[in-house]
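User: Hey, quick favor. My workstation is busy. Could you predict this chain's structure for me?
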Amino acid sequence: MNALTKEWVDKAEGDFATACREMRARKAPNYDAVCFRCQQCIEKYLKAYLQERGRRFRRIHDLIELLELCLPFDQTFELQRDLFKDLTKYAVEFRYPGESATKEIARIALRETKAMRTFLRQKLGR
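Assistant: No problem, here it is.
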């Protein structure tokens, strides 16, 4: 694994740890932050995958767009499209007034992130 790929993975793991920690918070948990960090984790894992394959990408946060960049390397990414679509919305959906994540939504986001994280870590040989 090249150094920049490892840096993407480390940042993804930081987001994952933050989401898990916030989900466990007993006092004033921030479920919006759980959802956002879940999306960020997977975004960074996708970028790590692309980085490792030498595929350039622009600054984007849409997991479906990143998925499309991964497909030429591995068609099994297509099987995960629905999960990527679910997680994409968390990049902005709960970051602004008018919408807030519930504990159940955050729980679902974390469960989907765990599944995608496992999938992506396998693709990176981790």
